[in-house]
Amino acid sequence: EEDLLNDVCREVVEKWSESQIVDAKEKKEDEVQAIASMMEKQAKIVVKPKEVSQEEKQRKAALLAQYANVTDEEEYPFPDPVGTQALSALNTPPALFRNTNVEDVLNARKLERELLRDEFQKKKEQDKLQREKDKLAKQERKEKEKKRTQKGERKR
């Protein structure tokens, strides 16, 4: 019976090993299949080219021409005293391309300060109201205590 038991155990271990190998192969095939399907999906995704209108093309050309004109004349950042460069190439006013980054940042900071100031004022008012409520509550407690002591003294 021991020989038979050893044979059965060996056979069970062999079958288990074979099943593990088959499972590993199936997992690898599944991974390969998943990667292939992901690559197919990515290949199907098509980025639509951005449609640029004629007006946007003209603006871009005017902007490029303006900066090319400025670097050629080397007058940047000095203002033109006569105003001959008030209208750049293609007769586009320079105000169309004004850089507002600094103004935007300053306005954002100013708005933030105002909001903080408003919040501080609200908190200050709430604290003041809370102090008044606390003061009234304290006063009422004192009055109740006073009435209670007066009642006690009357009963004596």
UniProtKB/TrEMBL annotation:
<feature type="region of interest" description="Disordered">
    <location>
        <begin position="119"/>
        <end position="156"/>
    </location>
</feature>
<protein>
    <submittedName>
        <fullName>CCD43 protein</fullName>
    </submittedName>
</protein>
<dbReference type="InterPro" id="IPR037666">
    <property type="entry name" value="CCDC43"/>
</dbReference>
<feature type="compositionally biased region" description="Basic and acidic residues">
    <location>
        <begin position="119"/>
        <end position="143"/>
    </location>
</feature>
<feature type="compositionally biased region" description="Basic residues">
    <location>
        <begin position="144"/>
        <end position="156"/>
    </location>
</feature>
